[in-house]
């Protein structure tokens, strides 16, 4: 089935998230209590809720989106381009822009969204943050009443599982084993919070996010046994 998909109908994406507040002490008392309850099963006994708060960005109830990067293929005859762009700023602004992109260019039945671990993280996270921010869900994220084969989502991690539900593979590992050249990243996901809050360097986060979008597209191409994108084919817009 992968070979039959039109690459121009797929929107590749990645999100970066951080805790809603920089410090646990910045939360109101109710939020602190709820975070303590939410995180108690993930924390070891010796780790306090405050110490564990650096991971709060993983949960949509306690985190927020600071960047959504997207990429899409553009074909003109034999010429293949992969265009990458990012939405950043205030979260409500990010979500509105992303929603408008879906409405204007990726709203038809033929269109699909693709992310690495997207079904477990990116897609539901975006949907939850839209609801929290008072936005109606776009069609591509509103899964209510849809049958499994009607869900317009692709997930490169799920594709790599081949039905093995317990098998988690990071994007970095998958790219490595598939022989995809590693981009020159100067950070990883665990550093996003500090780079955003401590260093105030959103541009660095955006670059990291965009590199993951490109890598996801490269993984998808390898799964179709197609040539990888060259640097010349990748265009930032």
From TrEMBL:
SUPFAM superfamilies: Ribonuclease H-like. CDD domains: DNA_polB_like1_exo (cd05782). Keywords: Exonuclease, Hydrolase, Nuclease. Pfam families: DNA_pol_B_exo2. Gene3D superfamilies: Ribonuclease H-like superfamily/Ribonuclease H. InterPro entries: 3'-5'_exonuclease_PolB-like (IPR019288), RNaseH-like_sf (IPR012337), RNaseH_sf (IPR036397). GO terms for molecular function: exonuclease activity; nucleic acid binding. This is 3'-5' exonuclease. It comes from Flagellimonas sediminis. The lineage of its organism: Bacteria, Pseudomonadati, Bacteroidota, Flavobacteriia, Flavobacteriales.
């Amino acid at each position: 089935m992968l070979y039959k998909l039109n690459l121009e109908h797929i929107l590749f994406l990645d999100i970066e998230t951080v805790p809603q507040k920089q410090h646990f002490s910045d939360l109101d008392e109710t939020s602190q209590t709820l975070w303590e309850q939410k995180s108690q099963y993930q924390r070891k006994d010796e780790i306090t809720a405050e110490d564990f708060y650096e991971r709060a960005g993983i949960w949509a109830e306690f985190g927020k989106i600071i960047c959504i990067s997207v990429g899409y293929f553009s074909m003109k005859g034999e010429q293949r381009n992969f265009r990458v762009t990012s939405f950043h700023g205030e979260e409500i602004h990010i979500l509105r822009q992303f929603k408008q992109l879906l409405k204007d260019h990726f709203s038809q039945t033929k269109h699909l969204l693709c992310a690495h671990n997207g079904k477990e993280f990116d897609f539901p996270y975006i949907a939850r943050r839209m609801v929290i921010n008072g936005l109606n869900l776009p069609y591509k994220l509103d899964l209510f009443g849809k049958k499994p084969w009607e869900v317009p989502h692709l997930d490169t991690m799920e594709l790599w599982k081949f039905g093995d539900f317990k098998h988690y593979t990071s994007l970095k590992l998958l790219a490595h084993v598939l022989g995809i050249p590693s981009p020159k990243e100067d950070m990883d996901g665990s550093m996003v919070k500090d780079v955003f809050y401590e260093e105030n360097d959103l541009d660095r986060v955006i670059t990291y996010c965009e590199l993951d979008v490109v890598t996801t597209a490269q993984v998808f191409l390898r799964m179709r046994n197609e040539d990888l994108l060259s640097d010349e084919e990748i265009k930032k817009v």
